[in-house]
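Components:
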Amino acid sequence: MSTRLDQATVDLLGVLAYGELTAFERLASDARLAPSISDKHALASMAAAEYDHYRRLYDHMLAESIDPEQAMAPFVGPLDAFHDSTPPNDWLEGIIKAYVGDGLATDFYREVAAFVTDAATRGLILETLADTGQASFAVAKVREATKADPAVAGRLALWARRLVGEALIQAQRVAVERDALTELLVGGSGDLAGIARLLTRLTDSHTERMASLGLQA
Amino acid sequence: MSTRLDQATVDLLGVLAYGELTAFERLASDARLAPSISDKHALASMAAAEYDHYRRLYDHMLAESIDPEQAMAPFVGPLDAFHDSTPPNDWLEGIIKAYVGDGLATDFYREVAAFVTDAATRGLILETLADTGQASFAVAKVREATKADPAVAGRLALWARRLVGEALIQAQRVAVERDALTELLVGGSGDLAGIARLLTRLTDSHTERMASLGLQA
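Structure:
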């Protein structure tokens, strides 16, 4: 198959699609930890929304003559490694992972997507990065738990720091291996000062998300 | 909330909805065991179809003034017990569970659904019992595996027998606890001879499914 889209865009579609597919699996698995039917329902609904995003990216790749499996393949290692190294120990850790982890990833992908030249692809990517309901659900559940037992807050803050650390390790691995994608980001940002500003924006949003949960970043 | 539907129908909607919700979770979790991206894709798609069935049953209950959580609650214990007692050890066992386990459950529910008096509910239930693609996928994958290593067939046949055994234990538990549902089935079947014929039909279909996989029932 030959596609009119450049390698960086193909890479971005691939990493996003595999990211949504694994997010779907993990959210649906974490639904098993849910303490009530309504919590299970909420998590299953978010997982189904992730599948829907995955499906739209997958279908877009087919329509653009991209082999979705080939596009996803380079990202299986890093994404599986991230998830394998961060299995949630309980329901709250699963929620933090869905909100804080996906939030950071989403912010990052949105920054990269801005540099995609194909308008249809850029539009679709931005749509699939929309919040699937994690935010308000996570905030409510975590605040409920820390109100009932303030000691929980310290443990969850540590957990969030670990998630960010593991995510950075894998992101670095991708950056080293996928030249076109890295070039898109570096070229789009302009220079090192541009990259620094991007990292500041990501850090600020992460700190805000943690604050909304009532946790220290 | 007060509904125009009788208790047996409410029970049937509840057990079906919770059954689809747990099937969704398990299929999505099993997708993690998939040996390739395309297998993962196939399992995730089936899981998403189960979620869609769950959602339609859930919405139907709301429209019929039934509290879905209350309707599902009596079946959480038996269905969770079934899944907890039958965690697949590998990818093939997961596929057998999805095909043979869901197949038996589906046949059974279809028999019960025939006795539901409300036509709209009966129609919806029969639609949600449609195959979500497990059949042809499972047959292809299991035949592939037993061709590569004939010894696998014996282990998988034993696994399927265990699934049926655990399912019967939980079904019996439900029958004892949910009078209205049991009454619907017994009353609908007419008499003990009717029940015996129903069991024969279920057994025959199960044997056919096993044969299509190339396994002994």
